[in-house]
Automatic annotation (TrEMBL):
Pfam families: Nitroreductase. The gene is IYD1. Belongs to the nitroreductase family. Residues 1-26 form the signal peptide. This is iodotyrosine deiodinase. Residues 29-38 have a biased composition (Low complexity). It comes from the Eukaryota. InterPro entries: Nitroreductase, Nitroreductase-like, Nitroreductase/BluB. Gene3D superfamilies: NADH Oxidase. Residues 39-52 have a biased composition (Basic and acidic residues). Keywords: Flavoprotein, FMN, Oxidoreductase, Signal.
Amino acid sequence: MVVLSVLTPVLAVVLCLVIGFMLVRSAQTETTSSTSSGETERTPKADFRPWVDQDLQDDTEIKGREDEDGDWVDSNEEEELLHVAYSASVYPEETMLERSKDFYTQMNQRRSVRFISPEPVPREVINNVIRTAGTAPSGAHTEPWTFVVVSDPETKHQIRLIVEEEEEVNYRQRMGDKWVHDLSRLKTNWIKEYLDVAPYLILVFKQTYGILPNGKKRTHYYNEISVSISCGLLLAALQNVGLVTVTSTPLNCGPQLRLLLKRPANEKLLMLLPVGYPASDATVPDLKRKPLDDIMVHI
Ligand SMILES: Cc1cc2nc3c(=O)[nH]c(=O)nc-3n(C[C@H](O)[C@H](O)[C@H](O)COP(=O)(O)O)c2cc1C
């Protein structure tokens, strides 16, 4: 009896240790298996790819989905779609050749410009370039994009503060020596003066799912590819009117910028584009583009 009463607390302690150990092991196994399947989980250190945007780990969305999982609609719940005749512009071959060359020449002059003039840009021009971006194809015509146009100086400054704070950590800690070295030729760093100076900042959000007027959710297939294509059209439209930008993907700023701009949890920041005329003393790195033979395979 005496032996038993001495042993009981010892056994209880041993039992607690065993249960604790098992719980820790099962939590570790869960983390490892879920990271391999979902973009929303933290990347294991051995597989750390800092350029894969950690902004996609915005818990607010994950939580929202879990809470209301029954609220999704299938596309067949929507109305039948009419099909109408399509007619395209048809050009003689000579004109086609000329147009293709002209467009290439114009697009080949596009450069990422990090020195932007504060000179005002007509608002209607910005509306039109965004209309152009909105003509992009999208998975199942879901149009999963939101373009937030910021011209308010105070909001631009708030954006700058968020981006510079995160970018300094990115450059000093997250990006690693190789990435920082690769960028050094471009002379980029975490100081982003253009975020205050450019007359417009366009923040492009991808909608990871849609929310219908009745509150139900709709799958946005290939939303990131769709929004990336629309950004390509946006860049072309800016080039077409003589405006410049620099494609930027501010790492780890997404959740803060989304909250600042009061965007809903289904939206994730994909790109931040400062837009304006180039500064009169703007410079760009003297980069060369690959020739056709290096980028095209004709079979
Ligand atoms: C997805 C993507 C992300 C980029 N992110 C940045 C960035 O964060 N900061 C920056 O200064 N430039 C950024 N750039 C611009 C590239 O550095 C630039 O496109 C490249 O050096 C080629 O120069 P060009 O655009 O003048 O042809 C990015 C470009 C792309 C396509």
